[in-house]
Fold this sequence. Notes:
This protein is mainly beta.
Amino acid sequence: MYPDLNNSCGRSRRLPSQHGLRLLPRTLFLLILLLAGTLTGRAQNPGTVSGKVVDSQGSALPGVSILVKGTTTGTTTNPDGTFQLQVPTTANILVFSYVGFTSQEVTLNGRSSVQVTLQEDNKTLNEVVVVGYGSLNRKEVSSAITHLSAKDLLRVGSNSPLMAIQGKVAGLSVTNTANADPNSTPNIQLRGVSSRSAGLGPLFVINGVPGGNLDNINQNEIESIDVLKGGAASAIYGTRGSNGVIVITTKKGTADSRIFYDGYTAFDFITNQLSVLSRDEFLANKRGVDLGGNTDWMKTVSNNPAFSQKHTLQFSGGNTRTNYFTSVDYRNAGGIDLRSSKEEYGGRVNINHTSANDLYAITFSAAPRYARTNLADYSGFNYALTLNPTQPVYDNNGRYAYITTGFFANNPVERAREVRSEQEIKYLDLNASFRLNLLDNLYSTVTIGQVNSSFRNYNFTPSTLTTVLNGSGRNTASQDLDENDQKSFEWTGNYALDVQKHSVKLLGGYSYQLFTSSGFDASNQLFPSNVLTYNNLGSGTWNLTSGVNGVSSYRNSSKLISFFGRVNYDYDQKYYLSASLRREGSSKFGFNNKWGNFPAASAAWRITQESFLQGIPWLNELKLRADYGVTGNQDFGNYLSLDTYSGYGYYLYNGVSYQVWGPSQNTNYNLRWEKAINFNVGLDFELLNSRLSGSLNYYIRTNKDLLGDYSVPNPPNIQGTTFANVGTMKNSGLEIQLNASVVNRNDFSYNLAFVGATNSNKFVSFSNDAYQGQTYIDVVGMPAPGSPGNIQRLRENTRIGSFYTLKSAGVDETGALQVYDRNGNVILANKATNDDRQFVGNGLPKFTGSLSNNFKYKQWDLSLFFRGTFGYDLFNTYAFYLGTPATQENANTLKSAYDGGKYARLTNAATYSALSDYFLESGSFVKLDNVTLSYTQPLKVKFLQSVRIYATSRNLATFTKFTGGDPDLIQVNGLYPGVNNSLSYYPSTTQLLLGLQLTL
Length: 1000
């Protein structure tokens, strides 16, 4: 043994004895041997390491990423889970990572073969969910929030990234009635309609900045999307949280360098198209005169298929302290109409830096985007439905035919080719944050952001257009510019404390946002040439000769200032409580209501943490939640609570024109935000070794003080309406989300996800203490020909979207529509009055659902996504106007007018414009909405890690009884669902998308 060099009695150290000195060389020699052995062991790591990766059940895992730590050297496992990797002699640690599993580091210590078992990541407990001004592990969440990662998004070639989550979130309705228009944007609504005149869409928070620009995001940039549905989750955003909050987080850089490319080409083919009479059918049914031509107008005005392409290149890298993520993309897309197109260039840079001592962290993000578009002329398809098929496109001289007769009198090919309607779009999003870590459990963050958008519109109609040549003879041009700017400053402080089984997290903050909108427009006519189009408006002489100004401009702004706080508490990871309060002031509100309070509270109980549920092998997680929150809606125009003046026209006095000014609105000093009172109760669960997981939510939301124009007596009021807080609406529903790992074998897996939601709606009241009035209003006026009137009634204690028309009693022997009068007697529809109308159906869906099926076999992946909407009616506007023999002469009709069906029986023009439930049809449908097949090939090439090729088809098949085309083309969001009150028609398409992804 070695001698004790210290005095055991505590005396001073003595010099080593001669015997001890003799032992020193021996000790040093042993230490040298030990060190040399260690160095030799590292140096002798074999050049090749092989092995196998399996899951907790011993099943092989193909496609697992394996990297030598600190380098870019790596590989992936084969279909049988095996791998082989050349390892530098100085390397000693391998990092194994796989989606859905926890990453693992393995130390080699000279081994040439390793067996690695990856543990499944417990999604419910460990998944990070982004909430307002922070993030939580899912086990800590006590409100209704749906989390989607990048791998959950659908592959779609769309203008908006939110089309990638259509049907993925229970209660979130994403609709687009013109998917194949590259400039269209979806309509988004969460948990039903919530307002009359204020905004209906949710608030978007992008990288922590409220009010972010959704159109400035490339789908490939998205890391995660969190939908805050519960009132307690969205109340932290106060006056803008009433319609829910969607939080989008973009990708960040990593310590490992990566280059990623994604490119695709897409083809849109018209499907489920409305069919009209051919030339021969048109003449056989004596629909009009024979003009000698044979034109398929739908084919003539269509660009079928429409072609688009998109390319994305992303770079990421850095180290553990400083990293970056850069993305650039290019998209060029054409619509199925002759004119529309969009070409855009975009990019994003995210930079993150953490100081060496973790004292502070800095983030910076910049995202510019530029687009040039040609806007669609939706009327082209309207013309194509009704134009005489014997009418040629060109006359005998080869010029565009001048068309003056028919339901719509115009040449749609000429309009699409000759009339210019363009738009130039610029976006710039900037944000930066500085986080100071004062203590391990105390930090403060300052975030600044700017969201800027610019839209410049260009329009020109040449003098050579046949309708101009035969009309005014004047060419016309205009330009207008709309710019929007949002600047924000936010400070937050966070403190966390853990004491034994108690955990507390505190948040406090301040927010300031300034919104500015400005713009101008200028127009003129009678230009000396068509060459300069809209580029020299001053050369037109019309404004001068006619005394028209032709120029206008505007500028307005608003401010939001907020103070907010939140406390999260949990006891023993079993009981969770959260409470928040936001006090917010808005310059939009009336003098007496500038500030409002928005409280919220939620609680959760992880029942499986209780002793009485321990030891149940099939029950992995069970959590009961409840939350309550008050949110607001201030999405309406500026200055509506102030005294404003505007021009009342021009008047001559002594030969001089003077513009008269006066009050432009009734001032409402009591104007305030809409208020939504939200209650939600939910249950989260994981069963069968987490192979089945999901959540249930039941919600009730009552919207009070609805904003809208309210009729008032005139006089004493200056105007006949006042914008005021009047009315109450209520929505309730049940939501379910299920995820199941049905099969999980060595080479094959099958995962299933189901999303479903119900919605029950009631418009409670039109009146309040200050405004007492009507109990209903008739809405959705139908256009000419004829005078059809309104088709829906918005009435107290009634579901919105209620059709209020005559009730059909069939068709008589003369081909006239018969209806029931108010006494139940059968009369002709043209003899009925408004008093004979009644509630006959509803256009608001009662249930929406989707089913995702994901299959994986070795390197092959297949996903099938079904989506459906059920329990509602649609008014067949096209059949009403164009689908019966009674349709006006010299106009084409749908084939339904002569196919022997119900609409073919309406031959009597006397009842042509009578609104009844004869034209109501079930709108329920199921779609095979998205199918994606892909093949991924891992590679051992030095500069290429993997190649993935994929093919996607969108809107592949629709199963419905609705005869008016694709039921998805009729809007079901908003206050007037289930009816298209115009003949605007843009056909549905099936999209085929072929893509390639490279990972370097």
